[in-house]
Amino acid sequence: MPPAKQKPSKSASPPSDAVSAQNDLAAILRRDIAAGVLKRGDRLPPEREMALQFGVSRARLRQALDQLEGDGCLFRRRGQGTFVQPPPATDAARLKSLAGRVTAQEVMEVRLEIEPALARLAALRADDQARRKFAQAADATWAAPDQAAYDAADDIFHYMIAEMAQNPLFLTVYEAIRSVRAQAGWTQQRAATYSPEVTARLGQQHRALAEAILRGDGHAATNAMQTHLQFVAMTLQSGAPESR
Q1: How does the average pLDDT of the chain come out, rounded?
Q2: Model-level pTM?
Q3: What is the set of domains in the chain, with CATH numbers?
Q4: Helices (H), the chain
């Protein structure tokens, strides 16, 4: 069942008060996301409904949504709608049950098989617009001020790689992996064992991976993703701080 559509807060911008610029509307939506009015995985209402609510044209609304999509706050999925950050994987209940039966190392085995291929395809297939948005997402992982911010930025970073591969079946497989990891309590484990040194190394690995994808080097992107995931797997196995 698709997630219910969530409405932005009406108190922030009544329908009778037109928003003067798309930046103002983007700021209102960004504030609703930060405040939890719009939650991760929520689907926004249709554009026509939102334009009426905020008293703006659909063209201005699209400009604001484009801005938030470029910042990594929203994701659009053709035929499904606009979501707050990556949309939830299908069959979430079954994946939640699966998460309780797999280990982190088993998840890493699958990631090491899937994600290097996604990185290669992303390097070869991403268009200029996708590359610009991906560069912004990569910057966010390097500039994250704390572990929670890094976790959120890292999730978007890897999700965008899966999207840029332009293979819907690959993307569905990746969404299942991401959903299992989210249910497995890794976020709490990272928070308890946060290490600036480990995060710094992950940032360096992200930079190498992003640079390979942005210059369209599929071979280098494959190798960079393998290096990154092997480091994650080793830190998990040794009990050291780990990350996505």
Answers
A1: 81
A2: 0.66
A3: 22-84 (1.10.10.10), 92-238 (1.20.120.530)
A4: 22-35, 47-54, 58-70, 92-99, 104-125, 128-143, 147-164, 168-183, 186-192, 196-214, 218-238
